[in-house]
Amino acid sequence: MKKLIIGAASLMLCAGLQAQDFKINPSGYFENHGANVMVFSDVYPEGHQGGVTLVLNGDRRAAGGDVRFEISQGQWQGLPKMRKRVVDEAANEIRVTLSYPDSAKHMAGFNPMLYPDFAFGYTIKVKGEKDYLVLTVDLDRPVPERFAGKLGFNLELVPSTLLGKPWIMDNRTGVFPHQAMGPTMKQTSNMEHIGDFNPKGKASLDQLLLDRKTYNPMIADDIVSAPLAAGKKFVLNPQDELAKITIESEKGDLMLYDGRINHNNGWFVLRSEFPAGTKGNAVKWIIRPTVTKEWRYAPVVQTSQVGYHPGQKKVAVIELDKRDTDFRQPALYRIAADGRKLVKQQAAKDWGDFQRYHYLQFDFTEITEEGLYQVMYGDAASPVFRIAKDVWDKGIWQAEVEYFLPVQMCHMRVNEKYRVWHDFCHQDDARMAQTNINHIDGYSQGPSTLCKYQPGDLVPGLNVGGWHDAGDYDLRVESQAGEAYILAMACENFGAYWDETSIDFEKRIVEIHQPDGKNDLLQQVENGALTVVAGWKALGRLYRGILCPTVRQYAHLGDASAHTDHVSGTADDRWVFTEDNPGRELQVTAWLAGISRVLKGHNDTLAADCLEIARELFKITRCDNNWILTTKVHAAVELYLATKEAGYRDFVLQQQDFI
Fold first, then answer.
1. Which strand (E) or helix (H) includes residue 56?
2. Signal peptide: which range, if any (predicted)?
3. Which of 60, 96, 137, 531 is the most exposed place for a label (fewest CB within 10 A)?
């Protein structure tokens, strides 16, 4: 009997795996039941999104399929420029034309890129052929000898779904390792052949390529993973029909690499390399994602993560496979000590499609009794949530003040009982930035430092206050002043109070869950104001920001205390940048004026400094367009509220027509 059941189940699965056709859907990508193949539907290669992407039964399995100069690329390597994308439904194919370099980004841009000295165009074509797809790549110029084996078509494989999972390459088998492991191999870097594509680019080549003899994220191709395997036919997840993808190469070998060897955030890479002289028909892959006709995306029921106040609107959102048509009735249950009780069940409102999914809405606004609740849709359940009048009283915004902001505090040691979140950091801030430079992360410095300091000079007094930026360690003036202003307004308008942290600015020590009798919000307002005021006092103007000098420091993943050596005057000191930006200066003017009001009685000296700087900025900052005028009106409002001086009120009244 057991064998009969297993046999029947196998037959059902095989029936579900019958050949189906890949067709272009109304959203402009290939679809075959649970298998989706996007071809440059979005563009964010720095985040491993874009290019040719394979989504199988609701899970992204591969992405970033594109021509690259490197075996495993990172966010610092040059990207192509997309010229044209054609969705040809009649031919059932998508064609994308791209080219290297993107000259505007060479030695310039938010994060300057360095392109090898080979300019060419290429076309990627993906065509649906029944139950498989054909991917081809054609170049418009032959590959030079110096880039033989360097240029190739890469498809990145999502590591989080593959660790410990098997692969097959021809007759060779393997398992994706949990950690990046050797052997590695050395090769001549493309940075030995940097092109000259943008004479106006102001990035510093020497600065970008510092540490090149050890490791530099700008150089991604000198030490790389040796191939895990090479062959003609690659099978991903051969053990799982819901995740299995087969790729065959009809032009050259497939090679499998571990991209985590030279990038901590790298992925596994399946690649076909271009020999010297390659031009047309550089790549031809046959891609066969396993298609399961019966697969459906499991419903997801989403309610407010916070919970609900009894008097507010309450709507659960139910996300479905867009092929679902047999809708069920959602049910709301109240959960008590003696079990759960059905409170409401009725048909949901059909909201419609969005992207890959279909949505329903289940409104239970009329339920006001306090307690624990859960929404069910068939077997799918929402998280348990509360309906209560005190739903916003703790564990909501408080988490930012209790954890996030203290952990991000710069120039401090941050402790939480046994844990040290980070040790004393950036005590060597800062040196004056180079001039005429397009640096990284959107920072640039014009022909002048706009202050008394010259490039490379030590700028004293900047090692105080501030929060590290998201994902890295720079201090942007708008982030510092802006966050302090948000917290200040929470205090001023809502009387927000929380005290779970001890902050000692003199000793530079933070103790989480060690109350000190002071409002944590005000202490964080103080932290943001301190860095802005310190910059003004040191430079005689606002700083644009404070940022590390090298790419390797910028990509730093360790403790903040290891970011620099804490010895002023050495090469790893962060740089301080200035700018002439009246719109931003007047934004900060408004914020400082608002901050000054709430700091009175908490730190009177700092409050006075904030107000004095705001007054001066309002007086000296030019206003010659509508955007700047908008920020100046805001500044005048905040200054009037801080001083009650008629001049600021009159300025606002004079702008009634503009407002």
1. strand 49-56
2. 1-19
3. 60
